[in-house]
Amino acid sequence: MTADLYSRDAAALSSMSHLRFFPQAVTGGRGCWLRSDDGRDLLDFSGSWGAAGLGHAHPAIRAAVDAALSSQAGASLLSTASEPAVLLAERLLSVVPRRARGRVWLGHSGSDANETVVRAVLAATGRSRIIAFEGGYHGGTTGSVAVSGHPVQDASARLPGLSLIPFPNPLRDGGPEAAAARSLDRLRTLLEDEGTGADIAAMFIEPIQSDGGMLVAPDGFFCEVEALCRRHGILLVCDEVKVGLGRTGRLHCYEHLGIEPDIIVFGKALGGGLPISAAVGPETVMNHASAFSFQTLHGNPVCASAALAVLDTVEREGLAQNAAEVGAYLATGLQDLARHHACITEVRGKGLALGAELVTGDDMAPAAQITALAVYRAHQLGLVLYYVGVASNVLEFTPPLILSRAEVDTGIAILDQSLTDVARGVIGPGDIAGFDGW
Predict the structure, then answer these.
(1) Which domain covers residue 185, as residue numbers?
(2) pTM score of the predicted model
(3) pLDDT for residue 189
(4) Vertex 204, ends 306 and 109: CA angle to 5°?
(5) For 359-366, what is the mean pLDDT?
(6) Based on C-alpha coordinates, what's the Rg of the chain?
(7) Residue 329 falls in the annotated catalytic set
(8) What is the DSSP code (8-state) at residue 242?
(9) What does the alpha-carbon distance between residue 280 and residue 252 come to, in Å, rounded to a whole number?
(10) 66, 252, 352, 430: most buried by Cβ count inside 10 Å?
(11) Considering 6, 137, 254, 386, which one is annotated as catalytic?
(12) Count of alpha carbons within 13 angstroms of residue 190, beta-carbon side
């Protein structure tokens, strides 16, 4: 690698912010492609964990950022109103359901947005407890980790009043009906048999549990969850950070579920690669108190302008529809791979939010090592993708929404070769030493 960029990164940057799957170092990118520092073009099936929803170097984002910087309206909304932040808030209020049409809080990431919602719902309702799902990931700050259920965060403190219930996993829980019943029974027990319903401020959900393994709940499951929350006056908080803004074939992922959340959290793709997030919800919660949750650069005009460009482009270019159509094509390609590679036991997801679970043996033991080797080999062959799941055995596909069918064909061919090479022992455990992933 020229100038050994990867080694320089390891020597200068804290490993606390690293999640490494292979020795990747990039110097640029355009569309669905990244340029490696060794001169290779890499097809990006991750989209920087979904953050690059419009791909890399999209002209609409470049133009919006340039215009915002050409006559910069300050750098903060903390003590001043600015047109980009106000326009973004108005736009977000116009696309959320009636229950959430109150106020908009702007932040830097899905983590700080979820943390703010946790603090606000507890303070505004006067209730002390939160419900979330096992395997759920709502961020990496203290307050967002506190309501997450992913085992990678088990060493961090959870909210004392947090209750975690199982997210339905039809593959591992005996099918859709049994999986849904298991989760709903636990929720009813918490709210009714254990009598905690009056103490619970909110329930945090992911409409697709992404980092938990790209899990899709059975049809009707979240309608039952919503009904139970309404019965007990519990706010329903929908974390759309990774799977929202057109990724699943609709603007919001919760639209597939037939529910109407009280609070919606946006992040990642909202800024098209720039740091901005939003929480949208009722005025009684979001205006609980002034100066309740702020940082100086919240709602800065540059990131707010980029977010407006993202929303405009998703609508103007029909990217939700493209995600639905190309996502279905990608899912078909992955299902074809499953017929040739016995390790792929299930392909699931919606649109361009897909997962492929890898297992070994008749007992479907999680194939964590095969998964790690597969993504490493894919990178060697020119494809970028990562893995997720509580057992680190689910290939995750969150490419830019502009992905084409031709690029799907290229990526499927590379993944096919990488899985074949892993099975033949072309690479082995020694190659992935030091790349711990999740």
Answers:
(1) 72-316
(2) 0.95
(3) 95
(4) 25
(5) 95
(6) 21
(7) no
(8) T
(9) 13
(10) 352
(11) 137
(12) 25
